[in-house]
Structure formats: structure tokens, C-alpha cells
Amino acid sequence: MSGGRRTQIDIIYDMLRAIQDKGGRIKPTHLLYKSNLSHKRMTFYLDDLKLRKLVSEEQKDDHSFITITDMGNEFLANYRRIKDLTDAFGL
Amino acid sequence: MPVIIYSHDWFNGIDSLFEIFTVLVSLAIASVGYKAYRLTREKRHAYFSLAFALISLSFLSKILAELLVRYELSQKIIQMANIYHIGGGGFLAYMGFMFAGLLTLLILSLRIHDPKIVILMILFLGVFEYFSYTYLFGIFPLISLFMLGIITSSYYKNYSEKKLVTPLLTWLSFFLFTASQLFFMLATVDSKWYVVAHLIQLVAFCGLLYLLIRVLRK
Q: What is the pLDDT of residues A63-80, one digit of tens each?
């Protein structure tokens, strides 16, 4: 997770990375734990991620899973570059 | 202030080629900064992009002004005493855009949020530009040296906190960019320093290009 006070973009990154770290698919309860957010806030951000088509939700064997999409993976790659640029110039 | 009359004859044109490279590198950094802004919608990325776009515009103005002066000189239309008036607009734009770009980087580096301080800094730079253009071109590299020195020291602080390769590259590149201003000042005494200044500035922007490639290859 990112250190210090997280911006909206940091939270989105942390959530997507948590999904990616779990092989691209995660249960909502695990995501809640990994993203370090309240249930209300996680639902808010999850809806936003779905709206941006960065993740999708699917049902399997009566369980719900959050899956990262190709756009989500691309977002993570772009975010890492931006993070590197931000670190380089201390922005 | 790197002015054409300080240059060796054999170096005329080569300096413009070096500066075209700095324009392209600055534009590339501005473009990456803009992409960062589009993704994050954070103002700091927009200002970062703006700073490098202004630096790029600054070098472009200088290249165009020097081209004009060289053309006029080759046609023997003007006397050396009138050289500033021929390329004057371009040199004025060069100084203005450079001051604006460096000021934006300075505000970002020092995390200045108070608009009153920013307005005051703009006013001071306006006065400095007036004096640089009207009386003494040597003032420009002195002010640039001072501004770049502060920016470089904040980049050193950033590197010492993070201990990563990319902040180190930023610091070293800006250190060289700052040093080049010192040699541009010395160019008023001996034209060989003009060549040295340009070479150091070129290496500085090579460092920034390498930094950008490292970031984009991730």
C-alpha cells in the first residue's frame, strides 16, 4: 500500500494492485481487507472502477469475484510510470 | 545569456542543433507530464507539464532569434551593435519563457501554495527580465543560475530522502544544467566557455532523456 495520506488515484492503484497480486481475481471481502478501506468507501471505489471498466464482477459457485480487466492492467502500468516520474522530480 | 557574438565561428549552427535536442527532450517530458495529468487530474502534474513546455518554448524562441540574426549577419544588413534589436523579440521570448518555466519548477519544488508569494516572484522576474533585456544580458544567466541552484538543491534533498536512481538522474541533470549557466556567464569573457556551456547543457538534457526512457520502459 502507498504510505502517507492516499489520494483517490493511490486508492485505485492499491485496489487494482491487490487484485493483480492475487492473480487477477479476488473475493470482495479480501479486497476490503487488502485495500484498507471501510465497506462504504470500498463500495464507492469499486463502483467507480467498474464504471471505468478497470474491473468486472463475476459470479462463480455462489461466490462473487472481482476481476481486473486489460484496461485495469494498463492503468497499473501507466500509474507505475507516473509514480516513477513523480518520485524522480519529488512532485 | 548565450548570445551569438560570444560563439566561435565553427560552432555557429552546432549550438542550434544542440538546442533543438533540448527542445525535443523538454517537449517529451512535458508530454509525459500531460499524460500523467490526464490520468490523475492532479494539478502538480499539469504544472510540471507546463514548466517543461515553457522551457521548450524558450529554447525554440532562442533558436529562431539566432537563425534570424545569423541570416541578417550573412547578408551584412546589420551592424553588430544592432544585433539585439534584430533578434530582440526572440531573445525576449527566450528569457520570458525560461523564467516562467523555472519559476513553475521552483513553485513545485518548494511547494509554494501562497498566491501572494507567487505574484511577488512573477513581479521580480518581470523586473529582472526588463533589466536583462535593456541593460545587461549577463543578468539573465545569473538569475537562471540562482533559480536553477534552488531547484537543484531541492532535487538533491529529494534524492537523499528516496535514494533511488531516477531522483539521482534528475539531480545530476539539473546540477549540470545549473553549471552550464555559470559557463554562459563566463562566455562574455572568453568565447571558448560558450562551447563548454553548450556541451554541459547537452549532457544535462541527455541525462533527462535517459531518465525519461527509464521511466517509460517500466
A: 888 999 999 998 898 888
- pLDDT tens for B106-130 read 999 988 888 888 888 888 877 777 7
Instruction: Give me the domain span that covers residue A37.
Output: 8-85
Kindly list the residues from chain B whose CB atom is less than 8 angstroms away from the CB atom of residue A77. Answer: 218
Interchain CB contact of B160 with A (< 8 Å): no
Q: What percent of chain B has pLDDT over 90?
A: 45
Question: CB under 8 Å to B177, separation ≥6 — which residues?
Answer: B148, B152, B201, B204, B205
Q: Say if the Cβ atoms of A81 and B40 lie within 8 Å.
A: no
* Overall number of domains in chain A: 1
Averaged pLDDT for residues A31-48: 87
Is A3 inside a domain boundary? no
Yes or no: say if A49 and A15 are a contact pair by the CB < 8 Å rule.
yes
pTM to 2 decimal places: 0.81
ipTM: 0.79
Comparing CA positions, the residue from B99, B93, B45, B46 lying closest to residue B65 is: B93
Please report whether residue A65 resides in a domain: yes
Query: Is A91 part of any domain?
Result: no
Largest Cα–Cα separation, chain A: 48
Nearest CA to B105 among B63, B62, B144, B141?
B144
Give the cell for residue A64: 462473487
Contacts of A84 in chain B (CB under 8 A): 166, 214-215, 218
For residue B199, the enclosing domain spans: 4-217
Whether A78 is in a domain gets the answer yes
Q: Count how many domains chain B has.
A: 1
Test A84 with B108 for CB contact under 8 angstroms: no
